[in-house]
Every structure is written in structure tokens, then in C-alpha cells.
């Protein structure tokens, strides 16, 4: 039996406080408009039991849980301040600031601000927005994300379950569910965690979003004379002392997909990976990675995205990158994730840097795997004239030095078509073979059976 729900038949409900909003979070088929103004959730509110009093998932509590369906919530002109002290006030639990579990909802134009120090880490972990359910859209949110520990080192001292400094992450925006859509959102990311990431998401769309983190030189980290890193003599999770000469993002992925996780749709818990993500017209700045969706399955499509000052630009494993651009200020515009990566089709324009180059590996792009068709365009900055495009071999990445994580490094490259329309030089490693290369830049070939064509330089 087919039926449709029209929001237009309902009168809009205006709420003037968070207390008035709460009873409508599980309503179906309503339109809520919140009166413009600034509203705050404090640690005192938590102690009174006003928010997050019950568990959402195992060891997870939610401040605002949207359980209804077919509803619109308009927060135009509304700022929601959340004190970072709220995270610890909820005890030994993860904290989600907003979670959506219903279907066909629209939440729009909310400004969310974490108020406190960047060092105010949660007891377990924190998250700004979590999208479950199906066919939901979060649009026009502006998020300032703070509160993690340790902050100021990126993943040098901890990632996942292993660490040399115990860490509490705080990510900004998680998409799960089916056909959920994040549109025209801005994330000012000042915490250790992902900006936007996908787990158990099927056909997610991330469109028109702007993400901006922070970066820091490893030299400046090593100059510290006190603090958690100094106390362990800068012994990294990679098994060696932090090396100088690199730039690290203080966050994690800008846009990231995972091949596992769980979601809630129509009240049912579903465990799966992420499939068929679409990323459109996004800008990612100063994050560990720009768009890394290699762990997704199905069609992976990225178009019109710009990556600025990230440690790595695009990594899809396989898929399409159309009309995208990146700089190589702090790392390559593209890097192969695994040696098994295949059928990656990309056209990436390398854009000049607006900041001084601090790329420890001096790598423009790292290309390995097989059956790719890659075109690189752009003009070489004078300041980056000694950088090069690497095809196979050692990545020279800060996390892979001294033989660390050998399964993530020193890859073979074979049966790849590479069109280098830049004047950056290309190094074909001894692990390259059957590479069909057209290049404006100088080519050094240490491989076997590579076919090289030189094009005329644009220089007069």
C-alpha cells in the first residue's frame, strides 16, 4: 500500500527553549521552528537529569535524540552552546550531542559550539552529530568542535585501540543508515577525531561541506619541555621517536569511510560496512586526509572537491575522482591505500600552495596498485621544484619509517596509465612495470617494461 506524508498539512510549532523542544523529538510529521537565540547545555543540566539520562547504545548517551519521522526542524538563527564539561559529567560513557534515528527528517541551519578548552577530553569519547535511520538530511549546520585529549599531536601517540598516550577522541559528524545526506555543513575542527566519517552507511551523500582543521610541525612538538609527549620522550605509536621535518594534522580524516560498524534503521540494529558513497563539491583543509573512502564498497564517486593543506588528498582504492584539486603542501594529492587497489580513475589538478611547503617526503602523488587511469594537471611552484610523483616503492611517509607497517608500504605498480600534464618529475620505482606514462616532467625509470612518452614543456 503506497502512501505519502505531506509536511504542509501541519501547522508549524514554534519553541522558545530547549525544554519546549525536547517533547517534540519523537514526534512524526511535524514542523518545528526554534526561536532564534543562544541556548546552552551545561554540566549542571546533566546532574539534574535534563539530558542524556538513558543509554542510546552500549556506553553511549545522547543529549538530543531525534526519534520521530517525516519531520522538519528549523534552527535558523539558533546557536546551541554545549559546555565541554558535559562530556565528563555523563560518566564512563560515549557522548553524542545529536543523534537521528527516525526517517525522512530534515534538520537545518543549527550553529553548534563546544564551549571550553580544546584539551577538555571526554571520559570515553564524544561525537557531534550521528545520523541513523534512512533518507534524513542535515543541512546548513555550522559546528565548532572542541574537547579531546591529547590535543596538539595528531595521531602520533595514539590511533584506535593502541597508544603511547591514552587518548579520548571527539569526532564531529558520523553518517550511518540508508541514503542519509549531509549538505552545506561547516565544521571548524579543533579536536582529535574525524571531521566527517561513515560507518555502516549505504548510499550516503556528503555535499557542499566545508571542513577546516589545524596543522602543526613535528619540530614544534619536539620543542615542548613539559606535557604528555615530553613525559614519554616523544615515543610515537609507530615505535620510534617523533621525527622532525613533517607537518601533522591535529585531527584525523576530513571525509572518511569505514568497512564496518553498526546502524539503527526502523528500530533494528544492522552491522555492515559502508557502500556507494558520493562526495560532491566539498572543501577540506588541514586534516590528516581529504577524501579517504578506500574502505567503502560499491560505487565510490567524488566530484568537485578541493583539498588544501592536508597530509594526503584523495584515497579511494577504486572509484572515480572528477574535476577535483589539491595541493601538496604537507603531503601528496593522492596516495594508494593498499597494493590491491585497482581501477582508480582520476583527474586531479595540483594547485599552488598558499602556505610554506613542509612535505617531509616531498611527494606530489604516490601511485601504485594496478589498472588505474590517472591524469595530473597544474603548474609547479618554484618552492616545490624538487618534489616528485612517485610510482611504486617506498612512500617515505612519517608513519612508515624504519620498516614500520610493511603491509602499507613499498607497493608494486603495474598496468597503470598515467598522464602527467605537469612539469613535476616522475620516479618509476624498481617495483613498477607496464606503466604507460605520458609526462611533461623529467622521468626516471627504474622499473621494467614501462612505456614512456615525453610531451613538450609549456615553458618558452
Entry keywords:
460 residues, 42% strand, 9-stranded mixed beta sheet, globular, disordered N terminus, mainly beta, 12-stranded parallel barrel
Report on the structure:
A hairpin with a 2-residue loop joins β4 (55-57) and β5. The strands form seven sheets. A twelve-stranded parallel β-barrel has the order 8-10-15-18-25-28-31-29-26-19-16-11. The chain starts with 11 loop residues before the first strand and ends in a 6-residue tail after the last strand. The protein contains five helices and 43 strands. It has a domain at 12-275. The protein is 5% helix and 42% strand. By secondary structure, it is mainly beta.
Low-confidence stretches: 1-9
Question: Can you count the helices?
Answer: 5
What would the average pLDDT be, to the nearest integer? 95
Query: What portion of residues is helical?
Result: under 10%
State the end-to-end distance: 70 Å
In terms of quaternary structure, the protein is single chain
Strand count: 43
Strand order in space, largest sheet: 8-10-15-18-25-28-31-29-26-19-16-11
Q: How large a portion of the residues is in β-strands, by DSSP E?
A: 35-45%
Shape: globular
Question: In terms of structural class, how would the helical and strand content be classed?
Answer: mainly beta
Largest sheet: 12 strands, parallel, barrel
Spatial extent as radius of gyration: 23 Å
Amino acid at each position: 500500500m503506497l502512501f505519502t506524508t505531506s509536511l504542509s498539512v501541519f501547522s508549524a510549532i514554534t519553541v522558545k527553549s530547549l525544554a519546549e523542544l525536547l517533547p517534540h523529538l519523537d514526534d512524526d510529521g511535524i514542523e518545528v521552528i526554534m526561536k532564534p537565540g543562544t541556548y546552552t547545555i551545561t554540566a549542571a543540566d546533566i546532574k539534574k537529569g535534563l539530558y542524556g539520562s538513558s543509554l542510546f547504545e552500549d556506553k553511549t548517551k545522547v543529549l538530543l535524540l531525534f526519534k520521530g519521522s517525516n519531520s522538519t526542524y528549523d534552527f535558523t538563527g539558533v546557536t546551541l552552546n554545549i559546555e565541554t564539561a558535559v562530556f565528563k559529567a555523563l560518566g564512563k560513557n560515549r557522548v553524542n550531542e545529536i543523534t537521528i534515528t527516525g526517517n525522512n527528517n530534515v534538520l537545518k541551519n543549527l550553529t553548534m559550539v563546544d564551549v571550553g578548552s580544546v584539551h577538555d577530553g571526554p571520559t570515553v569519547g564524544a561525537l557531534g552529530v550521528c545520523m541513523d535511520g534512512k533518507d534524513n538530511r542535515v543541512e546548513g549546520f555550522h559546528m565548532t568542535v572542541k574537547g579531546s585529549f591529547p590535543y596538539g599531536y595528531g595521531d602520533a601517540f595514539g590511533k584506535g585501540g593502541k597508544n603511547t598516550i591514552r587518548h579520548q577522541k571527539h569526532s564531529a559528524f558520523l553518517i550511518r543508515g540508508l541514503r542519509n545526506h549531509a549538505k552545506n555543513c561547516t565544521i571548524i575542527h579543533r579536536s582529535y577525531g574525524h571531521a566527517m566519517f561513515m560507518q555502516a552507511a549505504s548510499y550516503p551523500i556528503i555535499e557542499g561541506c566545508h571542513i577546516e582543521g589545524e596543522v602543526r610541525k613535528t619540530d614544534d612538538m619536539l620543542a615542548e619541555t613539559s606535557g604528555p609527549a615530553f613525559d614519554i620522550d616523544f615515543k610515537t605509536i609507530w615505535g620510534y621517536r617523533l621525527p622532525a621535518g613533517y607537518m601533522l594534522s591535529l585531527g584525523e580524516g576530513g571525509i572518511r569511510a569505514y568497512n564496518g560498524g553498526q546502524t539503527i534503521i526502523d528500530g533494528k540494529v544492522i552491522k555492515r560496512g559502508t557502500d556507494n558513497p558520493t562526495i560532491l563539491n566539498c572543501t577540506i583543509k588541514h586534516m590528516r586526509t581529504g577524501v579517504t573512502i578506500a574502505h567503502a564498497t560499491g560505487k565510490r564517486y567524488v566530484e568537485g572537491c578541493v583539498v588544501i593543506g592536508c597530509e594526503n588528498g584523495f584515497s579511494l582504492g577504486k572509484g572515480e575522482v572528477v574535476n577535483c584539486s589539491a595541493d601538496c603542501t604537507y603531503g601528496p594529492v593522492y596516495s594508494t591505500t593498499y597494493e590491491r587497489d585497482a581501477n582508480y580513475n582520476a583527474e586531479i589538478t595540483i594547485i599552488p600552495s598558499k602556505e610554506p611547503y613542509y612535505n617531509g617526503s616531498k611527494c606530489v602523488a604516490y601511485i601504485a596498485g594496478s589498472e588505474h587511469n590517472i591524469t595530473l594537471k597544474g603548474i609547479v611552484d618554484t618552492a616545490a621544484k624538487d618534489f616528485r610523483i612517485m610510482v611504486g616503492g617506498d612512500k617515505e611517509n612519517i608513519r612508515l619509517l624504519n620498516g614500520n607497517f610493511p603491509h602499507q608500504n613499498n607497493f608494486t605498480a603495474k598496468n597503470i596509465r598515467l598522464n602527467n600534464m605537469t612539469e613535476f618529475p616522475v620516479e618509476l620505482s624498481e617495483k613498477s612495470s607496464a606503466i604507460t606514462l605520458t609526462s611533461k616532467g623529467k622521468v626516471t625509470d627504474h622499473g621494467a617494461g614501462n612505456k614512456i612518452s615525453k610531451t613538450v614543456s609549456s615553458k618558452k
